[in-house]
Amino acid sequence: MDPDDAVKVLEGVAHVVSKLSREQQDEFLGLLATMAREESDPSRRAFLEEFPDGFGLVEDVA
């Protein structure tokens, strides 16, 4: 995939995710966690595990 196209897709995903209600975000986080647990490819698993933080679905508790 062309890197510029990949960035556009990720920006679109970030926009959609930012519009989810808290309930929808919680459901999505649960789905991502399930997918990550069941993923056998290490790079895909890492992407799924890092997605919530990378897309602003988790708040820093620091």
Structure in words:
The chain is mainly α and 62 residues long. The chain has a domain at 23-53. 74% of the residues lie in helices and 0% in strands. The protein has three helices and no strands. The protein has helices at residues 3-18, 22-38, 42-54. Helix 2 (22-38) packs antiparallel against helix 3. The protein starts with a helix and ends in an 8-residue tail after the last helix. The model has no long low-confidence stretch (mean pLDDT 89).
Q: How much strand content do the residues show?
A: under 5%
The 3D shape can be described as: flat
Task: Provide the structure class.
Answer: mainly alpha
As an assembly, this protein is single chain
Largest sheet, in brief, is: none
Number of strands: 0
Distance between the termini: 37 Å
Spell out the helices and strands N to C. HHH
Report the total helices. Answer: 3
Instruction: Return the average pLDDT rounded to an integer.
Output: 89
- Give the helix proportion (percent range): over 70%
Parts with pLDDT < 50 across at least 5 consecutive residues: none
Radius of gyration using CA atoms only: 13 Å
Can you give me a brief rundown of this structure?
By secondary structure, this protein is mainly alpha-helical. It has helices at residues 3-18, 22-38, 42-54.
